[in-house]
Amino acid sequence: MAKSKLSGGEWVVITGSGLIIAFAAIIGSIVYLKPPPVNFIYEETLETAAGEAIYRREGCLSCHEIFGNGASYGPSLDGIGSKRSKEWIIRYLKSPWPGVSAKPYRLRMPSYASLPSSDLEKLAQYLLALKFIQSSD
Ligand code: HEC
Description:
Blueprint: H1 8-33, E1 38-42, H2 46-57, E2 65-66, E3 69-70, H3 80-83, H4 86-94, H5 117-128, E4 130-134
Antiparallel strand pairs: 1-4, 2-3
Helix pairs in contact: 2-5, 4-5
Bound molecules: heme C.
Heme C binds next to helix 4 and helix 5.
């Protein structure tokens, strides 16, 4: 009865290959499962441009960042139009509450209830035009 025995060197090769295959499988599934990159876009119209002017006038960018412009005392508003509805945004601008974003912030979002409703409407139009799209590559 010829029993085939593996030498020490062969075991090293076999376990080594096994480890390499396991490693490749893990890395492969991470790469495969990685979500596609997100692109932020701004769909400008006359109404959103009017809203952007109010956004600047009210100094929203002293706390918020859009396309890398502005400060980070509040959350970035890139893609906010894909996240929130117009009703939500107007309600939030009138009476904001803390804890809407994933991270805690030291500053509080001020209330803009004193703005005329036409301004709130335009601000909401502007924010709604900030969308995100998942690119297919
Ligand atoms: C003093 C700083 C400050 C200013 C000025 C400010 N914000 Fe904010 N804003 C915040 C902070 C902080 C939050 C996050 C609150 C939280 O989650 O606790 C926030 C949250 C928001 C959100 C909700 C974001 C989300 O993820 O849903 C919107 C929309 C928003 N702000 C719009 C505006 C607009 C429009 C203006 C100008 C009219 C403005 N903010 C001015 C600090 C500010």
